[in-house]
């Protein structure tokens, strides 16, 4: 019975435990890649990289010099035109904003003026009323004085 249990354990370990097999495959791949090929791929990639860098160093400046003449002037013209348009849009927006601000200020000043005129009208009415009262008092005072003069005067 122990022997059967041990055999079942070995079978289970071989079926479900894959780590030794994976480790063996990894070792085989590394050995194949490094030892047998002798870093052939990495040397090829390094050489290819050097060729690309050299080509970029030689071809890019000559191509840019030819392209710079026509394309850059065209790009600069377009950028200047776009910049000019952006400035015009900003100016229009600023004028519109100032116009709305000016209208708001004018409305505020009109409101203040209306309040000022109402206050002045009230003050005028009060001064007119005080004047009328003073004229009335003086009229009565002088009429009383006139009556007193006529009482005492023989003429």
From TrEMBL:
InterPro entries: Bloc1s5. Belongs to the BLOC1S5 family. This is Biogenesis of lysosome-related organelles complex 1 subunit 5. It comes from Seriola lalandi dorsalis. Pfam families: Muted. GO terms for cellular component: BLOC-1 complex; transport vesicle.
